[in-house]
Design goal:
This protein folds into two domains: 30-123 and 248-317, D-Maltodextrin-Binding Protein, domain 2 (3-Layer(aba) Sandwich), CATH 3.40.190; 124-222, Periplasmic binding protein-like II (D-Maltodextrin-Binding Protein, domain 2), CATH 3.40.190. Helices cover 43% and strands 20% of the residues. The chain is built from twelve helices and ten strands.
């Protein structure tokens, strides 16, 4: 009996040591980081500076693969069908993960197919108005829209894109109706506001900052939690009296469902460490808001809350995608 017990304890001890060694061994080969969009966009501007920092921390190569198409479905499907071992990860934006499920019949349900691993950055907007609108503050823009409901226009990257939803959020928060004008991407939308085709737009802060002293546009507010480093003199929407208003997008890392928790936690810790040094300062200077030591579980709650918030907004605004 004693000999059997001793053998069982030895086997258990060996298994525990093997399990601990396996957790410590991750990663022991290159990691694929799959993006939902083409090279050169906002996603790339976050993922590519992050990758070399993660390589230093994890001691393995990070291979970035851009797989654009079908509103993120191509990338999502690739990662969802990969082994849940931490060697294939999804670098995702808010739109395909928490807005698209309310608008499309997706082949992959982002909330059930993936495990949230780490929030990387939030990217708020600058509200930028053309001078022809004759407004010098957000209050004046809102007053104009109250006087002429449904006629004050703003440029968007397309129906249900983040800039469109930012405008719907502002309308819901103030009870004011704005008129979205969809363009084929934010590049054309920015050209539209610079040219006076629309009254205003929700612009990426990195794009808006060089126009801070332009004679064509006026930057009225930023939509983040706090003032932005590139635009320190521009108030937040919340400062201007619209409580709890925040809009923009975010980027984070997800893993296939079934990925071991210890692997998820290791990647999460690596991302948080990467965001604690020079990379953090770089993102802040670009107008982004890097995550601050958010755990994987807290990120999962963040994603769930954003999914619910945007779903309620889309339903209330009656936003639909034309077939």
């Amino acid at each position: 009996m004693f000999r059997v017990l001793k053998t069982a304890m030895l086997l258990l001890s060996t298994a525990l040591l093997a399990g601990g060694h396996a957790a410590q061994a991750y990663p022991d080969k290159p990691i694929r980081l799959v993006q939902q969009f083409a090279p050169g966009g906002g996603s790339d501007s976050v993922a590519r500076p992050l990758a070399p920092e993660l390589e230093k921390i994890l001691g393995q190569t990070i291979i970035i693969e851009n797989k654009p198409g079908a509103n993120g479905v191509i990338a999502n499907q690739d990662v969802a069908n990969s082994a849940p071992d931490g060697y294939t990860l999804l670098f995702a934006a808010a739109g395909p993960m928490v807005a698209a499920p309310h608008l499309y019949d997706l082949r992959i349900d982002p909330l059930s197919a993936f495990v949230p691993v780490a929030l990387v950055v939030k990217t708020p907007y600058a509200i930028m108005a053309h001078r022809s609108a004759n407004v010098s503050s957000l209050k004046e823009l809102l007053d104009l829209a109250r006087q002429k409901p449904g006629t004050v226009t703003y440029g968007t990257s397309g129906v249900a894109g983040a800039p469109h939803l930012a405008g719907e959020m502002l309308g819901a928060a103030t009870g004011i109706e704005f008129l979205p004008v969809a363009y084929k991407g934010m590049g054309p939308a920015m050209n539209a506001v610079l040219g006076g085709e629309v009254n205003f737009a929700f612009a990426d802060i990195a794009y808006a900052a060089p126009h801070a002293h332009s004679d064509r546009v006026k930057i009225l507010a930023v939509t983040g939690e706090k003032r932005s480093a590139p635009l320190p003199d521009v108030p937040t929407v919340k400062e201007l009296g619209i409580a709890d208003y925040q809009s923009g997008t975010w980027y984070g890392i997800f893993a296939p469902k079934g990925t071991p928790q210890d692997v998820i936690d290791k990647i999460n810790a690596a991302v948080n460490k990467a965001l604690s040094g020079d990379l953090r300062d770089r993102f802040i200077k670009q107008g982004m808001e890097p995550a601050s030591d958010m755990s994987a579980r807290d990120f999962a709650e963040f994603v769930k809350d954003d999914y619910q918030r945007l779903g309620d907004l889309i339903k209330k605004a009656g936003i639909k995608i034309a077939p």
